[in-house]
Amino acid sequence: MLQYIPMPTEEVRSLQRGDPDAYGRTPEHQVSDGEGAPCRHCLKNIPKGAGMLVVAHCPFPEKQPYAETGPIFLCADECEAPTDRSSVPDVLASSASYLVKGYSSDDRIVYGTGAIVASERVDSAAREILEHTGVAYVHARSASNNCYLLRIEDSQK
């Protein structure tokens, strides 16, 4: 069964308090225009007029050549991570397509697993990628900007 994993709450709360991001910078405060601002914690689009944070995020435990860092959005106010991680989150319907790619247990890209897929195919593409030898998890990212969205795991693996 697939699990859609948001950013950890403790990391998000730290950023919402103004603690530094992956580049050591204070989170930028902006107002959402209601389009294209998916929160990486609640996995919903940030509503128009709501405060949001723009931060540099690295979804890997340590720096290494494959540890991509890039911009992401978060709700400025506290939001709740989904309790049901087995349902495809709303945020995966916010764009026409996504980049999905597999990573090994040592957080390296598994070559040959990356693909740009239509939003309605993210779950099936993730399943296929997770069947590859050496793939421990999958990232879903923006197909147009490569921004990290969420992590996908197989709870049976």
TrEMBL record:
Residue stretches of biased makeup (Basic and acidic residues): 10-32
InterPro entries, sorted: DUF1203
Region (Disordered): 1-34
Protein name as annotated: Uncharacterized protein DUF1203
Taxonomic source organism: Shimia isoporae
Source taxonomy: Bacteria, Pseudomonadati, Pseudomonadota, Alphaproteobacteria, Rhodobacterales
